[in-house]
Amino acid sequence: MSKSEDPSTSSVSETFDEAERVLWADAGSGYDAVYASLCAYTIPALLDGAAVSAGSTLLDVGTGTGTVARAAVARGARVTAVDAEPSMLDLARMKAPEAEFLLAVVPDLPFEPGTFDAVAGNFVLDHFGRPKVALRALRDVAKVGGRVAFTLWPAERSAGRSVFSRTGAATEGWIPRQMPPLVLADDYPRTEEGLAGLFREVGLADVTTSVIDWDHLTTADEWWMSMGSGIGPSGRNYQAQAPEVRAAFRETYLRVAAELTDEDGTLRLPYRALLAVGTVVDSE
Length: 284
What we know:
With 284 residues, this protein is of the alpha/beta class. It contains 12 helices and 7 strands. It has helices spanning 16-23, 28-34, 36-39, 43-49, 67-74, 86-95, 131-140, 163-169, 192-201, 220-228, 232-239, 243-259; strands at 57-61, 78-83, 100-103, 116-121, 142-152, 204-218, 267-280. Strands 3-2-1-4-5-7-6 form a 7-stranded mixed β-sheet. Strand 2, helix 6 (86-95) and strand 3 form a beta-alpha-beta unit. The chain is globular, with a radius of gyration of 19 Å. The chain starts with 15 loop residues before the first helix and ends with a strand. The relative contact order is 0.17.
């Protein structure tokens, strides 16, 4: 294995944001097949928090394959959605043709201040190397009195979210992937308190947080698709391992998945997410 293929290394000059874009490059169809349904569970609460209703103008940040955009359009909202990955946007346009989709990278957004009634993102905060800079930019494109709402995976991993990390830790020879670090001044605790603090620090008011718990129902074979197809961080890391390590990982995964599988073959993955909502106030 060459150094460039070693999952434990990354280029010294590579930023967190650049590494994230590499991990999800050309992953639209794979994400839609495996992860879109997992992430969809939080969408009703996200849109409720953002007060999205008929006639609302919404910026959907990190739309992925357009699940949030489609749900907002169904509420009668006028939706603009952005993502940094073209393959995601191709599928999103088919899923929600009534919305406007743009290729864009936060914080470099092509919008004037105060453009939207609401700004929302489903599990996108973890993809920003400078989350405070990103969130300030997103706050700025919302109108005064508008809502900003984001979901987040908490630092404490639920049993469902731990399946692949548990498998890797129990697999001999497994090399964990090391991402470039976030800018320290922009980091924050991935807890309810930390998320609320982030929202207040960027100038949002009336900040509230909540916890969303659910079971994602799938099968061991269906959930394995992300690894076998090299989708996202876990799948990319799996593909970078030596062949014998991949084989051992697969065997260990089946044992871990069996612990969470019902008698009828349903793989029941408990998940937890955090939701934060804030209101834009006039800074003057």
